[in-house]
Amino acid sequence: MASLTLSHVGKLYDDGTRAVADLSIAIEDGELLVLVGPSGCGKTTALRMVAGLETITEGEIRIGERVVNNVAPRDRDVAMVFQSYALYPHLSVRENIAFGLKLRKTPKEELNRRVDEAARMLGLSEHLDRKPRNLSGGQRQRVAMGRAVVRQPQAFLMDEPLSNLDAKLRVQMRAEIGRLQRDLKVTTIYVTHDQTEAMTLGDRVAVMKTGVLQQIAPPQELYDRPTNLFVAGFIGSPAMNFLGARLRQTDDGGWHLELGTHRLDVPADVMAARPGLAAYRDAEVIVGIRPEDVEDAAVVGRGDGRSLPAVADLVEPLGADVIAYLTVDVPRPSGHEHLAELARDAGDSPLMPEGTTSMLVARLSPRSAVGGATGGGYRIVVTVDTERLHFFDPESGSAIWEG
Fold first, then answer.
1. Which stretch, 137-146, 207-216, 369-378, has highest mean pLDDT?
2. What b/e string do you get for 369-402 counting C-beta neighbours within 10 Å, with b at 16 or more?
3. How far apart are the first and last CA of the chain?
4. Which 3 state secondary structure label does DSSP give 341?
5. DSSP 3-state of 11
6. Measured on CA atoms in the order 186, 61, 72, 54, is the torsion positive or negative?
7. Residue of 78, 97, 298, 326 with fewest CB within 10 Å of its CB?
8. pLDDT at 396 > cutoff 70
9. Environment class of 320 (CB within 10 Å of its CB; exposed 0-12, middle 13-18, buried 19+)
């Protein structure tokens, strides 16, 4: 096992395309780090540079204490698990798992011991004599993982290994990968575009956008203290809502947000936790509200300074909760580049709808009457948990915390 360090690593292609810029990450021995971001953000390129499948333009990559910039992929002592499984169709499961060991001329007794142990760990013992075409997608992915496990490498590199599986299998395999990594304690870089995978698997998660690292932190810290609009909108499902507002202070020292003709009070402890927010008195801010912090006022009570009238345009009853897509008469936020990037990643969904209204996605209780509404136009008053508001600078897109 070994630590893995990327120091100011960059990738510039011959046509001038910048895929990765100044990427610095230190991954501890035995840690599972997830690289997450939208398509084209540079996460797979970063992984392939670690594997030696892409040359680096700038910087340094270390595996343990060894600089591997110019080391051939086969000599880096890393094992890669691909999205496409990359199995040999004419070989049995046993032969696929053992393939790398045979190339290394591992003694037969040791080879068989490692293959049998990996098969037992991955639930493949009964399938060792079958060919890949006779296996399910989940079983094929286990074989690909078994081939990596038997090598006993210094690091695992996983490139979206679950993207070809159906939803149920993805959940199951996600749990198995987490268990396997904890048991083996192998340093692992896991690439995905799925933020749910990132949050459930990673010891830490690194969020990338257009080749640039935005934030690296444990999953809960990313969720609670996103560093900017992009991280805030990318982490969480459904995504965080962003509204335009102006921060005001009353004569008695209290604070509130003006959202068009509406008002949300900002609790004193929220202001205390964000000393930098006071500098935005009478200025515009972007306020972030997570869907789970919005509830039907008829269920939880209206609450002065915490409620907004809305119209439900679309309702998705999910049993345990109700996802409601609401229109609120609140200014949309200014078109910061992070918001535009989030909209593009969502397929140009209306994160910033036309006009002076905004969309507010809410995760409501199934007790809400809106869950039984059919069609659009259902009027509702929602209550916002103002203790959990997020604030961002409209110019820089950075989260507002310190002074």
1. 207-216
2. ebbebeeeebebebbbebeebbbbbbeebebbee
3. 42
4. helix
5. strand
6. positive
7. 298
8. yes
9. exposed
Q: Who has greater pLDDT, 398 or 403?
A: 398
Give one DSSP letter per residue of 46-60, joined into a string: HHHHHHTSS--SEEE
**DSSP state for residue 243 in the 8-state scheme:** E
Q: Which residue has the higher pLDDT, 31 or 372?
A: 31
Q: What is the pLDDT of residues 333-367, one digit of tens each?
A: 866 677 777 777 655 444 444 456 889 999 999 99
CA distance 3 to 25: 11
Once rounded to an integer, what is the mean pLDDT over residues 237-264?
94
Report, as an integer, the average pLDDT of 374-389: 89
Task: Provide the token pair at 209.
Answer: 């956008």
Strand partners, 284: 246
CA distance 213 to 115: 38
Secondary structure (H, E, C), 260-315: CCEEEEECHHHHHHCHHHHHHCCCEEEEEECHHHEEEHHHHCCCCCCEEEEEEEEE
CA dihedral 14, 15, 21, 22 (to 10 degrees): 30
Determine the residue type at 297.
Answer: A
Closest to 325 (Cα-Cα) out of 367, 363, 298: 363
Long-range contacts, 343-349 (Cβ 8 Å, 24+): 344/38, 345/38, 345/39, 345/234, 346/239
| DSSP helix/strand/coil, 233 | helix
What is the model's pTM? 0.90
pLDDT value at position 374?
64
Question: In this model, does residue 403 exceed pLDDT 70?
Answer: no
Angle at CA 307, nearest 5°, toward 287 and 400? 20
Please identify which residue in the block is written with the tokens 């036309």.
Answer: 354
The rounded distance, in Å, linking the Cα atoms of 205 and 149 is 23
Report which of 328, 323, 341 is spatially closest to residue 262, judged by C-alpha positions: 328
Of 191, 162, 212, 226, nearest in space to 41 by CA:
212
